[in-house]
TrEMBL record:
The name this protein goes by in its record: Antibiotic biosynthesis monooxygenase
Keyword Nuclease: no
UniProt-recorded Gene Ontology molecular function terms: monooxygenase activity
One GO CC term on file: cytosol
Keywords associated with the record: Monooxygenase, Oxidoreductase
Alphabetical list of InterPro entries matching this protein: ABM_dom, AI-2_Isomerase_LsrG, Dimeric_a/b-barrel
Domain ABM, chain residue ranges per copy: 5-93
Keyword hit for Oxidoreductase: yes
């Protein structure tokens, strides 16, 4: 198995808060990509449901993910969207080889 951990995080904005959520999520991307353990970090929006945002990330290991959660850009984003989300789901995935 690969040591790389992939994350798929789905966040749905409460009705009327899409723009605020998008702005807060976008603000986290550049800083996250610059982190030492970050392999990939991309924000997407659902074509058929613009209130649903999806982060697809790849991290070197669990320690890198835990460090990511302590960064200013992550904490700022999390605080900004805390009361603006209707739903949040985070999957930590490890690829099965073969």
């Amino acid at each position: 198995m690969s040591n790389v951990i992939k994350i798929v995080a789905t966040l749905r904005a409460k009705p009327g808060h899409r723009a605020e959520v998008e702005q807060a999520l976008r603000a986290c991307v550049k800083g996250s990509r610059a982190e030492a353990g970050c392999i990939a970090y991309a924000l997407h929006v659902d074509i058929d449901d613009p209130d649903r945002f999806v982060f697809i990330e790849a991290w070197a290991n669990r320690e890198a993910i835990e460090q990511h959660k302590t960064t200013t850009h992550y904490e700022t984003m999390a605080g900004a969207v805390k009361d603006l989300l209707e739903h949040r789901e985070v999957l930590l995935l490890e690829e099965l080889e073969g």
